[in-house]
Amino acid sequence: MQKALVSIAVAASLGLGATAANAAILDDVKAKGYVQCGVTGGVPGFSAPDSNNVWTGIEVDFCRAMAAAIFNDAEAVRYTSLTSQERFTALSAGEIDVLSRTTTWTMSRDTQLGISFVGTMFYDGQGFMVREADGIASALDLSGAAVCIESGTTTELNAADYFAANGMDFNTVVFVDQDEVVKAYEDGRCDVYTTDSSALAAERSKFANPAEHIILPEIISKEPLGPVVRAGDSQWFNLARWTYFALLEAEELGVTSANVDEMLGSDNPAIKRLLGVEGDFGTPLGVTKDWAYQIIKTVGNYAETYERNVGPSTPIGLERGLNALWRDGGIQYAPPIR
Amino acid sequence: MTTLDTAPQSAPRASFFNDPVIRGIIYQIVVAAVLIAFIVWIVGNTAANLAAQNKTTGFDFLWKTAGFDISFSLLPWSRGSYYWEAFLVGLLNTLLVAFIGIVFATILGFTIGIARLSSNFIVSSIATVYIEVIRNIPLLLQLFFWYFAVLKAMPAVRQSLELPYGSFINQRGIFVPRPMPDEQFGFVWIALAVAVAAVFLLRHWARKRLEATGQRFPVFLTSLVLLIGITAIGWLVSGASVAFDPPVLERFNFRGGLALPPEFVALAFGLTIYTASFIAETVRAGIQSVNHGQTEAAQSLGLKDNDRLRLVIVPQAMRVIIPPLTSQYLNLTKNSSLGAAIGYPELVNVFAGTSLNQTGRAIECIAITMLVYLVLSLATSALMNWYNGRVRLVER
């Protein structure tokens, strides 16, 4: 009901508060002094408040990078915790400036919701988590299982597709809130918990006894997760997209938060362009020419935020895999800054 | 008298603007115009903004394939079903839980309400504690409690509790054998319909006879005999039989049989318990509102205890009970939308939740959902008003 109320309020404000949606978002953001960032209710490694109630995660870092580019201050971000159900309405109603919330890029969302996907911050795929004691080795053994799912996600559709394609039947239990999904799985209401495999790993790290749960080898879908902005404001879209590319470009050029000041004196023209020493790539975006320097200085490059939040040394423990740079066998690739 | 007759004519003619009738009309026109202007503005603004946001709008999505699964459905459902079918499934699930909730909340509420008036100290205290505790805790918390507490207490699938007649209870719900009547069973339904008709005729005849001769007829007992007798004869003569499809344990769960998921049980239970506490207070107030003098008067007329309650006390109490009872029924129906929080696939979960998200048609889905609750509430209200009209005291 709460969620429904929020939806109704958001739907109503769609009707009323649209002037904000039509004006240039960057000007609005500069005027209010912070970026309003839509995040999850708490998926460790992606967006979750830590023990000091500070939001951390790879998606949070994207919002911080945008704030760094605009304000030279990565902390000029305010967070709105959204459920899967609320996220798109909140974005199109102008409640948030950028949605950075484990959101899968799909064609219908890109073309029908009045929103634009910036890029793929994280290449993911949907997986299944089961209890080890059940002795299941493959997702193809899941016929007849009860499956806990969060409402309003691509997960819901993929699961239905997968079970239908393999001639299996299943029982879904759909909750509005991610926390209830996990709780119901832990309490034994479901045999299976399914979502993006990275989020499975993240949720498992929160369990009382993570070793009792296994993630099945099958990845049943492509889930390119990325930040989203409202469609129709190309300046804001470009700023978001090139913030993401700057993170990748910095990794590719070996520029890190630790060595960025030394790199200002680098002879490499590509580094000079990235850091604003040579040429001015910031002004066309509506920010200063050292925008990328500010991002790298405060947030770091893509590799740094990956390792810090979801990498093998964290409780989430995800290898780079597809998310490695193109030259390292992955598919993360940024067009040149020139 | 003459002064009275001529007074209106001889009164000084009020100026056009001071005439209360004209003023009233002007106020009505102004208010209506403002309201219409507001609606036009908000609809136009919404449409313009939606267009500016490049959003696809309209109701055509209802005829598109939904592609998701709904676990508990009264209608046949598959991932190839359309969104309008998802709407119907959600609506029926809402109606089902609301209907069950209303029936049980009424029974429980009347029982507790009467118990609260009991002269037995223990009975009345239990009723008081129940009412005060339950109606002062938010319903959403109660639903979480019933759902997660009960879920934890239930045995896992492989340790299912076996109940009589091949039924089972576990964390996945309650499983009972599904009755599978054969083709001959249609005759049993016909026999039952005949029996019900016979009971109505009997009641009508008995009342006429009571009014004409003052003689009573044991209507209740005879009706019972008629109902059971005619149906049983129909069953025997037609030779109908009922097979049972029992639930069978498979790798993950029971298959076959009829299954009640824990989400439904928890929601129906929570709504019943919660609403019953309000109904109990309504019933207590209704009964206490009947003056004790009415009891004494009925006794002095020589009415039996049963008749005194049935003909004197209850009709007067109902007059007080019905209007607030109606609003409790409406509350229960609307509160069933909280089922979305505990995973029960009712209208808000299926339509204003999943469907809204998969299609992105926020305004359309929310508008349809609001309209449904409005219609449900108005229909319940109309029904109860009709009933209220029947039990109202006839003033002479």
What does this 3D model show about the protein?
The complex is a heterodimer of chains A (about 350) and B (about 400). Chain A has about 350 residues and is an alpha/beta fold. Chain A contains 14 helices and 14 strands. Chain A folds into two domains: about 1-125 and about 225-330, Periplasmic binding protein-like II (D-Maltodextrin-Binding Protein, domain 2, 3-Layer(aba) Sandwich); about 125-220, Periplasmic binding protein-like II (D-Maltodextrin-Binding Protein, domain 2). In chain A, strands 10-9-11-8-12 form a five-stranded mixed β-sheet, sandwiched between helices. Chain A has a three-stranded parallel β-sheet with strand order 4-1-5. In chain A, strand 2 and strand 3 (about 55) form a beta hairpin. In chain A, helix 4 crosses helix 10 and helix 4 crosses helix 13 (about 290-300). The longest helix of chain A is centred in the last third of the chain and has 20 residues, at about 235-255. Among the domains of chain B are: about 15-55; about 85-140 and about 260-390, MetI-like (MetI-like fold, Orthogonal Bundle), CATH 1.10.3720. The longest helix of chain B is centred in the N-terminal third of the chain and has 34 residues, at about 85-115. Chains A and B meet through helix 1, helix 5, helix 6, helix 7 and strand 10 of A and helix 2, helix 5, helix 11 and helix 12 of B.
